Amino acid sequence: MDTREDIMTKLHLTRRGVIKAGAATGAGLAMPTIFVKGAAAYTNEPKGSEVVFGFNVPQTGAYADEGADELRAYKLAVEHINGEGDGGMLNTFSSKALKGNGVLGKKVTYVTGDTQTKSDAARASARSMIEKDGAIMITGGSSSGVAIAVQSLCQEAGVIFMAALTHSNDTTGKDKKKHGFRHFFNAYMSGAALGPVLAEAYGKDRRAYHLTADYTWGYTQEASMKYFTEKEGWETVATVRTPLGAGDFSSYIAPVLNSGADVLILNHYGRDMVNSLTQAVQFGLRDKIVNGKQFEIVVPLYSRLMAQGAGDAVKGIFGSQNWNWQLQKDDAASRAFVKSFGEKYGFPPSQAAHVAYVQTILYADAVERAGSFHPCAVIEALEGYKFDGLGNGPVEYRAADHQCFKDVLVVRGNENPTSQYDLLEVYAKTPRAKVEYAPDNEFFAGGALGECNPGK
Amino acid sequence: MFKGLDRNDIRLMLVVALVTLAAPLILNPFPADSAWAQFNAGYPDLMQRFVIYGIFAIGFNILFGLTGYLSFGHAAFLGVGSYAAVWMFKLLSMNVVPAVLAAMAIAGLFSLAIGWISLRRTGIYFSILTLAFAQMSYNLAYSVLTPITNGETGLQISINDPRVLDRAFGTAASDSVPYPDFFGLQMNDTASFEFFGRVFQFSVGYYFAAMLFLAAFYLALRLFRSPFGLMLRGVKTNQSRLEYTGINPRPYTLAAFVISGVYAGLAGGLLAAMDPLAGAERMQWTASGEVVLMTILGGVGTLLGPVLGAGFIKYFENILSKINDQILHQWFAFLPDGMEDFMVTLVSPFVGKGWHLTLGVLFMLVVIFLPGGLVEGFQRIGRLLARLVGRGRKPVSDDDKGGA
Amino acid sequence: MAILEIRGVGKRFGGLQALRDVNLSVEEGHVHAIIGPNGAGKSTLLNCLVGKLVPDEGTVVFDGRSLLGRKPWEINQMGISRVFQTPEIYSELTVLENVMIACLARRDGVFRLEAWKTLAEEDDIRGKAMQVLADLKMEDKADAHSAALSRGDKRRLELAMCLSQEPRLLLLDEPTAGMARADTNRTIELLKEIQERLGITMVIIEHDMHVVFSLAERITVMAQGTVLVEDVPERIRGNPKVQEAYLGGHG
Amino acid sequence: MDAIILQILNGLDKGSAYALIALGLTIIFGTLGVVNFAHGALFMLGAFVAVTVRRILTLSFETIDPTRKDFLGNPLKVKTTYVEHWFGPDAGQWLIDWSVPIAVIAAIPVMALVGLAMERGLVRHFYKRSHADQILVTFGLAIVIQEIIKYFFGANPIPVPAPEIFRGSFDFGVLLGFPENAIIYPYWRLVYFAFAALVIGGVFAFLQFTTFGMVVRAGMADRETVTILGIDIDRRFSIMFALAAIVAGIAGVMYAPINSPNYHMGMDYLVLSFVVVVVGGMGSLPGAVLAGFLLGILESIASMKALIDLVPGINQVIIYLVAIVILLIRPRGLMGRKGVMED
Q1: Residue B324 lies in a domain
Q2: How many domains does chain B have?
Q3: B383 in any annotated domain
């Protein structure tokens, strides 16, 4: 380390820094004057009256619509932080640090980028936000791969990453980072929340067949579901890996009935889930009686857009969600959010929009409470932070792994939807205590947060 | 050094070198707080991508432009190069030299194996063979090879990696994830100057990649003008004549295939050196298709074309996708309210989430109006300028006579 | 001494016996013509010589070494060059580049990876190529695109490529096909001159009797896949078998 | 045993989809010599014809139901479709239910127009250009088509259900003496298979037994000669392009209930269809069909659990592996002609 620093001093290079000698040279010249960026204490320290957030969401590719919904929510959050609009969940948020005058008096502006749901493109986009636009915080994500890739980039660059949609255990497990924070729930929590509900609804004597997307997220989802259903007494007949984007799942679905299984668990997301569920229903699986029981299908992770894609096929099918706008029935915060989002855009927000909004507010609030944009101070303010009034009831950002802990929703496909927005209905809330785990739980072991890195 | 090159080639090389070295200045024409700052491309990440994808496309063009063999699986070599580089970072040292060398070596071996099989066929049969190999690599890297490639997330560096050499020399950082460096100069070290509101960023990573780009360009230039290059063009024009002239085309095409594979490996290694993460998407057919498009768009078989094509695509991908309604409103703020909204509505389908649309339209326009690719466009502008200036000299871009 | 010895060569394509027991020997330094009506098997025989086809039976020996099973480039490297019926040139390259490829192939053999040295440094090769072009009075077209050449010039270019390799045996497949009489005569003169100056052995396949009798020292007449008769031109002219083969009989 | 029969049946169905897509592509390859990267987009457009027809049939007007509330607490607007309003609920529901077969009929003229417009407006000018230029321009076109669809329909898949009576599956196993549920096959896939067989047979019969077809086949073999004979082969080629577009389009319509249409599905099938066409052999229609079925069946068999457990990842690579092996054994694919797209 020492030698490296020596070399850098000699060359007047600092990490992402400034040539200090340039100032002297510049001052000596009459014109044109060379202004040197003032020495910063940390990466992209905001100097003027504005501060830049980076919204890095999928705008092209399979998750473009989810990205669009996230972006809507980000814009709404920025409005509320800057004191425009009706304030949304700022009115219900347990912290009152944000005053509607931006963050630390600086007006929030934002830049947007396209992750294309590819780790590469997502990092390119995030790097351009950091290097070119001076973003102080990056938020977004559409898949766990992207979220983990961008999270480690932010760690290296010294900015904060507020993950939006990422469900893999690894994000706050073996790939956790000091600079990364996840509000969204994870595969383990889905399993923990669904296990007991499924056992209650379908009985403890069930035989499950897993179809699993053949990549990292699929593996963690499968492991979690297997663990928690077996804990309830279910037997796992088989787990089969399906190629990403297979399109036609018939050759995977057809053997299910004859395998002795009476439940099919689809560890798929996005288009894979839409297609595999549609096709499983088309096979008539749910009309069959196997082992003397009605055959059932389970989709551990739901999103509203996926439900819309699958249409009628979701009716009566269990899954889990981070948040659902129908919570507004008995939650004032959700009501406030649905109102301000719905009035601006004309339809209720999805869980993607919710997590995007909440993460932005949480970051801004942490800065305000810390009194500084310095990433180390912000991290300190977020770690172990307990809050309420953002739609999920009481929530804690656990210091050990930067994962939010809260109640998890079990949802079910609505048998009689009134519109394309209530295809899913809230079935049960599994309390936080039941989905919580120790930081060194086997599903999350390995990896370390590392140290706070102010960059420069 | 310039022995054997004519004046036009030397001039071309010098212009390319000058532009490359001055890129941080040239690509930043707009003040940072102006509405047009969006179009600045002079930040490290994008400049690095320009030169790295330039290397990739130059190498691809050595195969496609000279021999006419259209590989639809070249991204596999880029991906393999990236994985090799990251593994070197993890196992040996954060120094980029072993990583880049390993990337080139592994990609070379990989392309030797694939080329040896695929070159048994010509035309579209060859294209499909290369495509099949690349898609297999991608599918496996994304799924069952996850232990080696870290699948969906991509291979990353972690604090606990062995990094044998770094530990032996005591340069291994223990408290945080290290960054690739060139004997102590970290790739993400950047010096920035502010000058009349323009922020110029000089990054170590960019200059490291740029030097390798210039070397790659120079080597390609010589290769184009070499007897070897002539034989490759012979393969493209009339393979059977070549056989009856006493030349076995196979070793030539295989050599061209491996050279372009090594170029791709170098590009992949550099991508990993600039940003130490290797994702499987780098090997997908869309990535292979992208380098084909870069080459055709710029001008097949010309020296400069593929570089222009690479720059064109990467520029529009990175710049257009970041333009959002907020920025559009800024641009058209000078118009009356109704007009402003109308203009924003008109333009917004082409930027932000619609950047693909613009790119598609541009592809069609270029291929319809500039059959020779962007290089032809430059030549036309050059000729026009020459005529305007009224001097009889040939314009610079005419030098790019690379062949076919 | 015979430089090329063909003994008992036969070739079948499915049910068609294209060549049957063909025997032929070509003396070094001679111009040897092969004539015969369409379908006589002349081109098939030629393809068996250059490695495009492999005979089913028989032997082909060039300068004491068998040609059977060798690839076209190996046969060329042994000193056999071929001019095609329709000119086979590198139409996207310049005339000079066309000839330089042939010169390089002669010098470097089947494969040589030298990507660093440029053509501009290859003075010897360039000089030799220019020399051959000058011999064929094409030096003024050296920088022209070969696609733009006239048909006659394309044929001369192909000839230049073959000659630049200093072959020991030159195979010419209908070198004057489709030419006007004046061009044909020029070609005859050219070939004569080359033969006199360089003493290259030539095998010419030709329809045009004018060409054949102007050039050939020996003539082999083929019909229906086999050799009908082989002799000096004077005796071929009056041979009744030949007249029968051309004029009537088998139909 | 039953597992293998099951997968062969699945493979026939997958194969009929592959064959249909590849058929149109190979018509364009074979007749026009054009590398059409926009062919996947035609398939996708077909699927969106199904979406559009369903949207049109479900066009509705709103009436306010004051007794119910929407998500913001305002009175709920209840939608009634026009077809139900006009034809009564039963007939209206029936029309909506049968939207996919109706869409097939609608897709024929629509796709013919799209095909003609593409050929006349763009592709025609690229017959004499290099394959590289053809790739660039058709790829550009594919992106433009797909982005236009995304602009109007979004990126999310849109469900297009098959008619109600085709839901559920048929138990083949019982017929063959296997236990219940051993070999099941969804009704809609039976329909799809029959439909594909019909279309493929139709195209072959058209090319084989009509004068038009004979001329086109002659044109495929030797374009110049046919032109010399004074036949306007260009006009026929435009019609062939339209035909290819129709085949791709109706394949897309019928596939919509299996694979919910999304704007990107064309690109997803593009690579696969190229592989099928080339494995079948350039310029050979029977080759494309044969390769489609072969790859479909092998892909299905490779997705059996026993095989995946034996060779991990085999289901990920089977198609490409088979393609490589076939191309190495047979230089021009299964039934390719010499000299087509070999340089």
Answers
A1: no
A2: 1
A3: no
CATH number of A50-185+325-402: 3.40.50.2300
Residue contacts between A and D (CB atoms, under 8 Å) = 142
Topology alike, domains A50-185+325-402 and A188-321: yes
Contacts of B308 (CB under 8 A, 6+ apart): B297, B298, B299, B373, B374, B375, B378
Domain boundaries, chain D: 2-47+106-329
Check CB contact of B113 with chain D, cutoff 8 Å.
Answer: no
Before B44, cis peptide (omega within 30)? Answer: no
Q: Is residue B403 part of a domain?
A: no
Q: pLDDT 10s digit of each residue in chain B, 404 long?
A: 678 888 999 999 999 999 999 999 999 999 887 878 889 999 999 999 999 999 999 999 999 999 999 999 999 999 999 999 999 999 999 999 999 999 999 999 999 999 999 999 998 899 999 999 999 999 999 999 999 999 888 999 888 888 999 888 877 666 778 889 999 898 988 888 888 788 899 999 999 999 999 999 999 999 999 999 999 999 999 999 999 999 999 999 999 999 999 999 999 999 999 999 999 999 999 999 999 999 999 999 999 999 999 999 999 999 999 998 888 988 888 888 889 999 999 998 999 889 999 999 999 999 999 988 999 998 899 899 988 886 544 444 444 444 43
Asked whether the predicted pLDDT for residue D8 surpasses 70, the reply is: yes
**Which residues of chain A are within 8 Å of residue D74 when distances are taken between CB atoms?**
none
Dump the DSSP string for A10-73. Answer: HTT--BTEE-HHHHHHHHHSSSS-EEPPPPPSSTT---SSEEEEEEEE--SSTTHHHHHHHHHH
Number of B–D residue contacts, CB under 8 Å: 126
Give dist(CA B215, CA B211) in Å, integer.
6
Label residue A23 by pLDDT band (50, 70, 90): very low
Regarding chains A and C, contact by 3 or more CB pairs under 8 A is answered as: no
**What's the CATH code, domain A188-321?**
3.40.50.2300
Asked if A248 and D268 come within 8 Å (Cβ–Cβ), the reply is no
Contact A184, A163 (CB under 8 A): yes
Identify whether B243 is part of a domain.
Answer: yes
Residue type, B370: L
Which candidate, C57, C49, C41, places its Cα nearest to that of C172?
C49
CA distance to A239, A253, A287, D8, D101, per residue, from D169 (Å):
23, 12, 10, 16, 19
Q: ipTM, 2 decimals?
A: 0.91
Residues 5-44 of B with CB under 8 A from D: none
> Which of B188, B168, B169 has its CA nearest to residue B178?
B188
Give a three-class secondary structure readout of A351-395. Answer: HHHHHHHHHHHHHHHHHHHHCCCCHHHHHHHHCCCEECCCCCCCE
* Chain B residue with Cα closest to A61: B353
Cβ atoms of C101 and B226 closer than 8 Å: no
Q: How far apart are CA B4 and CA D179, in angstroms?
A: 80
> Which of D155, D161, D189 lies at the smallest CB-CB distance from A311?
D161
Q: What is the CATH number of the domain that holds B28?
A: 1.10.3470
Shortest distance, CA B130 to any CA of chain D (angstroms): 9
Mean of pLDDT values over A403-426:
92
Identify the pLDDT of residue C219: 92
Question: How far is the C-alpha of D287 from the C-alpha of D26, rounded, in Å?
Answer: 9
- Single pTM value for the model: 0.93
Q: Which residue of chain B comes nearest to D143, CA vs CA?
A: B360
Q: C212: part of which helix (H) or strand (E)?
A: helix C209-215
Contacts with B158 from chain A: Cβ below 8 Å: 447
